């Protein structure tokens, strides 16, 4: 009896969490319908809400903005918009940081996480998986003695929060593991071991 219950849990828990996350994403995207005038909203036109319509609208908006930004006039408008944002004190630093991260994550030319690595953390006799993100630059590099690399240490079970560290390259062990396999290992709290 216990075996069947655990088997059922192992099947239903990942499915339930996946559906829950998808519901949150779709519900959030459906909020884009709030920008549509009341008389054109599905509730007014057909008498009921259509789940997922906001998701389609969001994807369409993202596509159209990308299409517009890739031509000469759109590119000029984007540059003007960014100049304006860079003149607003708090918005400037926040927008600049978010733009840099999104450019890194979504650019086709490079990967945000280049390699899965093993590092001593939080102390010398304890190890964790991290991701190589690059090398320190600018003034930071001038203050570091030796060869250093930048690593991101994700937390479990939510890898989007974590710690950014600069470590001596000699302390970093490159793993023969894909970034995806390392992420699965981290999110599963070490339960799903990489192949």
Automatic annotation (TrEMBL):
Top-level taxonomic group: Bacteria
Keyword annotations from UniProtKB, A to Z: Membrane, Transmembrane, Transmembrane helix
Q: Which InterPro entries match?
A: COV1-like
For whether the record's keyword set contains Cell inner membrane, the answer is no
Q: Does the keyword Transmembrane apply?
A: yes
Pfam families the UniProt entry points to: DUF502 (PF04367)
Protein name, UniProt field: DUF502 domain-containing protein
